[in-house]
Amino acid sequence: MTITSSQNTLIKKVRGLLADKKEREEKRQFVLEGIRLAEEAVSAGIKPQLALTGSQLSTRGREIVESFQQMGVDVEEVDMDLLNRLSDTHTSQGVLLVLNIPEENPRSDNLNVLVLDRISDPGNMGTLLRSAAGLGFNTVITTPGSVDAYSPKVVRSAMGAHFKCNLLVRDAYGVRDFCKINNQPPLKIVLAEAQSAKVSWKMDLTLPLALVIGSEADGPTPEIRSIADETVAIPMKLDSESLNAAVSGSILMYEIYRQRNKP
């Protein structure tokens, strides 16, 4: 039977998860939209708790829904107009999933960790997660005051990175303990700083390290600054504006990856 009412219990649940960080934290669930992200979830062996589907599905959409049915997922058909109103995108692709937020399972053998200190823009957060997943940063730590890593816009822009990275939340001193005590080998904490005299391609970035990217508006907090072992800058033309957080973080992660993997 097709769900047509916006007052349906499942619809109200999904709407709450899409809109409210507190709801996501209490339920330990988040929402993923779109066929490609649904395929990423299947590839990662993730079983959704609920799948809402529309009647107007592409061939790929029908195939992914069949995969969920074979996995024993609760699949409910929703009227397309209602699904479009519920969707966080302009037009729903007809697949919307509810997944459990994984419990923290931090690795203790990291060679690379990305620390995001109060990153507030969802697009920047998602891009940084995507770069981290592609460049070998298996653990990503966000500090309090950062945008929720499981908000719909972050999930959409991260393009499946949530299934490839361990996502943790720590304050500055929790970051220090994780890097210096919990991780083996201990990690050097390197802070991205536009004014640093040390430029990325002249530094040795092959050592195990945690790269810290600070807030777009205010930069890193004093607490984060106090735990940093070193700073690093991306050299640019003198009359250039500084790069935004997602671009600078991705460039630095690539430089670390390049140094460790050069012939």
Main attributes of the structure:
single chain; 263 residues; alpha/beta; 60s Ribosomal Protein L30, Chain: A; Alpha/beta knot; 2 domains; 10 strands; elongated
Describe the structure.
This protein is an alpha/beta fold and 263 residues long. The chain has 2 domains: 9-100, Ribosomal protein L30/S12 (60s Ribosomal Protein L30, Chain: A, 2-Layer Sandwich); 112-261, 3-Layer(aba) Sandwich (Alpha/beta knot). Helix content is 38%, strand content 17%. The protein is built from 10 helices and 10 strands. The strands form 2 sheets. A 6-stranded parallel sheet has the order 7-6-5-9-8-10. Strand 2, helix 4 and strand 3 form a beta-alpha-beta unit. Helix 3 (35-43) runs parallel beside helix 4 (59-71) and helix 6 (122-134) runs parallel beside helix 10. It is elongated, with a radius of gyration of 20 Å. The termini are far apart. The model has no long low-confidence stretch (mean pLDDT 95).
Query: What's the overall average pLDDT, rounded?
Result: 95
Question: How big a fraction of the residues is strand?
Answer: 15-25%
The counted number of beta strands is 10
Principal-axis shape: elongated
Q: How many discrete structural domains?
A: 2
Name the poorly predicted regions: none
CATH architecture of the largest domain: 3-Layer(aba) Sandwich
- How far apart are the first and last residues' alpha carbons, in Å? 59 Å
State the strand order across the main sheet.
7-6-5-9-8-10
CATH topology of the largest domain: Alpha/beta knot
